[in-house]
Amino acid sequence: MSKEILHAVISRNFEDLTKLHELPLELPLYLQDNLNHKIRPYQEQALQHFIYTQRSDAADIAYNHLLFHMATGSGKTLVLAASILYLFKEKGYQNFIFFADSDAIVKKTRDNLTNTVSPKYLFNPKGIFIEGQPIYIQTVDMFPLQPTPNTIYLKLTSIQKLHGDLMEPKENGLTFDYIEELKIVMLADEAHHYFADTKRDKKKLTKKEADMRSWERTIENILSLKHSNRLLGFSATFNLENDLLFSKMQNKVVYQYDLKKFMEHKY
């Protein structure tokens, strides 16, 4: 079996296009226009790789679950924000669930994506505009069945709460039956936390690992509700030396930018 990850396959395809004097994918202008920070060259490459997969006719099958494996400090959340805009504009997604295994990370990301006066705000603080139309980001606990046009709905939660809400449904709460009617994009922070089942296989699990195994299955259940659903993971420390993990994620690592490259590029 090849030890080549998806990132390498896409990079080789881009090199072939360059040899044929065909430009690799150019980022849509609305991405940079609607972000608060200049997209760095490696972030541009990450987004090019992502867009390449989503333009594929096989995207719903082959590229519905992807991982950005990028060093701490390299701006993974800016790539996340740009991915939201792309999927909204080009693919019609309006429902996004961001989750992490830490309430502190959820709070920080809420600031990054919704607090226009925060110095860490990632979108254009003057407003998001696509084709002259204002686009609004609305945080929600429940996604509307009849969404308002030009609105991105964002649910930010811990993985523990998301799992608990789905496993023990409450009145007017989120359920698998409810989200089965929706197109959903899941955004998983530090995605290496959600693969205890894969990493440990049948070995004895600690309580923490048993919890993580349950989270992994919940995430996979949401993803399987619709072919059009997406799962984008972001991690700086995904252990691809683990054979079980590598076999599962080999064709999902859409972009890899490790600490060594980050330091070589003097960022």
From TrEMBL:
<feature type="domain" description="Helicase ATP-binding">
    <location>
        <begin position="57"/>
        <end position="256"/>
    </location>
</feature>
<dbReference type="Pfam" id="PF04851">
    <property type="entry name" value="ResIII"/>
</dbReference>
<keyword id="KW-0378">Hydrolase</keyword>
<keyword id="KW-0547">Nucleotide-binding</keyword>
<dbReference type="InterPro" id="IPR014001">
    <property type="entry name" value="Helicase_ATP-bd"/>
</dbReference>
<protein>
    <submittedName>
        <fullName>DEAD/DEAH box helicase family protein</fullName>
    </submittedName>
</protein>
<dbReference type="InterPro" id="IPR027417">
    <property type="entry name" value="P-loop_NTPase"/>
</dbReference>
<dbReference type="InterPro" id="IPR006935">
    <property type="entry name" value="Helicase/UvrB_N"/>
</dbReference>
<keyword id="KW-0347">Helicase</keyword>
<keyword id="KW-0067">ATP-binding</keyword>
<dbReference type="InterPro" id="IPR050742">
    <property type="entry name" value="Helicase_Restrict-Modif_Enz"/>
</dbReference>
<dbReference type="GO" id="GO:0004386">
    <property type="term" value="F:helicase activity"/>
</dbReference>
